[in-house]
Amino acid sequence: MRLDRRSVLGGAASVPFLALHAAAARGNVLNAMMPAEPGTLCYPLLNTRVVQQICGNIQESLLLLDWNFKPQPNLARSFTVTPDGLVYVFHLEPDVRWHDGAPFTARDVVFSCDRMLRQLNPRSRNAFNNCESIRALDGLTVEFRLKQPFNAFLLSLMASNAPIMPAHIYEGSDFRTNPHNFRPIGTGPFKFARWERGQYIRLTRNPDYWRKGYPRIDDIYFRVCPTPEQRMVALETGAVDIALADDIDTVVSKRLRANPNIVASTHGYEGVGEIAVFEMNQRRWPFSDRRFRQAFMHALDRDFIVKAINFGQGKVATGPIPSSAPYYDRKVLTRYDYNPAKARAMLDEMGLKKKLGGVRHRFGFLMIPDGGGVQTRGAQYVRQAASEVGLDIELQSSDWAGFAHRTGNWDFDMDNNSYGEYGDPAIGTSRFFVSSNIRKGVPQSNIQGYRNAEVDALFAKASTAIDPKEAQAHYSRLQQILTRDVAMLWIFERDPMLYYNRRVHDLVSGPNGPTDGFGRTWLSGEA
Amino acid sequence: MKHEKNRVNRLAYIARRLLRTVLVTVAVVLVSFFLIRLAPGDAATVMAGQSGYADEAFINSLRAEYGLDRPLPVQLWKYVAAVARGDLGMSYERRQPVLDVIVARLPNTLLLDAFALVVAMAGGIVLGALAARRPGSAGDAGVTVLAMLFYAVPQFWLGMMAVLVFSVWLAVLPPFGIETMGADHTGLARIADVAQHMILPGMTLALYYMASYARLTRTQMIEVADQEFVKTARAKGIAERQVARRHILRNALTPLITYAGLQASILVGGTVLVENVFSWPGIGTLAYEAVTARDNPLLLGIFIVTAILVSLFNLVTDIAYSIADPRVELGR
């Protein structure tokens, strides 16, 4: 590099310009963030939220959900279902090409669903193992033949469960080491452009996108912002345009809502239907006693948790199914109001009397690592609430590995966690309550050890019922049993917040929110 | 003849120190290998937990892929054998060679550390010398208070306050990162861009160490100023400025070299907090990511590279010390 007077002056002159445009690429560019850099961009291999929000722009699914949770065409322009609910036939969109120019065909769908996703992704495996066969009827038609009816089958074809992958890239290779895991190929509105390790991932507009007139922005940057403070500053200074669920702690939501340049929205995560919960190891006494679990629910002021600890974001959960989701039945639920006196009486009644020092029972509470966020604050509140009814809780911290290891191996008394319902109890809810999913060593399964033969049978019947009324009847009975048993302690429905700069429009187009990508998003002038 | 003997001594000393570096590295590998496995959980459980949906097949396939299903001694043997061949293994999470991942990030950390070290030394020596000129004066007290303040304030807090003031309120400096995303600057514009991004993290690191240098310089200079050769210099009628610079400061600086060597070592491994606060893509952020993901090969690789760098820094310090003070002979 040659140093002369002109280049020195040019460099110096650029300093104030750079200061004004600190850290962000502007223009028709969307600046997003990611709390951690993903290890891979192979969607089936690592189905985390970060990978979903990046790859949701690159890879596509056969169907999308509309705001009423009804499946809408995407890569499949139409579909038919036989009356017995056993055969689904999908007619694919013609003239779709992969980012490398290869044509998208039925072969890609069969390869993705029958082989790659089934082999790599436990979430997809759950749905596709129910298929007797998956085959191409012609170049643009695919048939899924089920072993038994599964009324949530269409929902399991959404992007987070079933991204369609390119057969010509992956077939015959080791899926885990394929170099395209770091420069993915898809059919989506954006193409992978660059991965600057430790800094950002850049996606660029797919000019040959099959949906004409889209996408409407040129580039998307996903910037690594590991700390909550950084993410907050990035949003406030305009260094990034959007913050997705959990990027920003609710502790600053009031401040952000007051910012005229920032829009706060609760739309975009209805499809997840996430509930924050406490889990109890029901193999151990007194957690095995239903009366203890019921008493504990009465000891908790869940309204306080929502209003004070989560700063009014979300609502008190009433049972295993989110109140906004299909099959929710408020009439059958057993309610547990905040009543410490009743909790004390119930504990006395079950023989858990106060001992020396006024303590009835001591136990541990394993906190899910959320960087001091709402779950940690919630655990601190629980310790205080439990002490008022004579229960002494020791809060236990851990990192992700320790948390997943201890809960997966049933080495805990009580923990806090959350789960997503994903539009249907058969997809997101049943796994925490059916006894067939009590699997040692597997986190995010029925780690509590809850067993109820009637619940097992009802979940099986509900998911295979062809008549929606029959399915509703089974799910109503399930909600009645599970809330009566306090099979889990449902604390609050999360209702995560999306924050974005005012220049961003149409950020989400359905209940799956950012998982469906930013193909319809557009930007106005600077905010 | 004496020069030749000194040269041989120096080479023998360097060879011994390099051998010691190898031994230190082996010890680091062995101790770290077992230590990081004491914590419950592994990379497979992290991925299973974070994906929100897992089954035995998923976890077992990951363990088989990473070799975590083999007995611990077998894992250690395979790892040590690979390291001996210069292969630090594959990162679990990134599925890339560990050496490539580290080499890509190391220059960023060294750049930040070098900036911080130079600023800290220069600033610390100047402030310390000013304070030592009139011990007990208002200037001395001011430097001492300032030094104690920067020494006592936690770096992550200082970093966050710097972001608040200079990025949020004044909007004059970028809050984080190493360069402007998507700007694709080249040449001087890129240097200016990186320099601008380096100011906040670099100064956050530097201020802490600058405080130490200021305190050390002040103490050393006051101590040296009281020695006989300084009195002799003054008695000869040498100007006070020359006495301060040539006699006092020069002799006071030699302990600073040792201190700088130690601090350079600490800096390499000690930037975890500052790099994370400013999202600086260096070894510090990489180490943090490796710990949270239980990416053991990557973490071990960082330990090895850091151990080698620390040993080399110490060697360079010793050599620099012998150059600065000819009375010191290496190898004796």
How would you describe this structure to a colleague?
- The complex is a heterodimer of chains A (527) and B (332).
- Chain A is an alpha+beta fold.
- Chain A has helices at residues 5-20, 49-55, 106-120, 122-128, 167-170, 228-237, 253-257, 290-299, 302-309, 340-349, 374-387, 400-408, 425-428, 453-464, 468-485; strands at residues 29-34, 63-65, 71-73, 76-81, 87-92, 131-138, 141-146, 190-196, 200-205, 219-224, 242-243, 262-265, 274-280, 315-316, 361-366, 391-396, 414-420, 489-493, 498-501, 504-505, 522-523.
- Helix content of chain A is 28%, strand content 20%.
- In chain A, the strands form 6 sheets. A 6-stranded mixed beta sheet of chain A has the order 14-18-13-17-15-16, covered by helices on one side.
- The longest helix of chain A has 18 residues, at 468-485.
- The model of chain A is unreliable at 1-23 (pLDDT under 50).
- Chain B has 332 residues and is mainly α.
- In chain B, helix 1 runs antiparallel to helix 13 (296-324), helix 10 (240-269) packs antiparallel against helix 13 and helix 12 packs antiparallel against helix 13 (296-324).
- Chain B is globular.
- The mean pLDDT of chain B is 84.
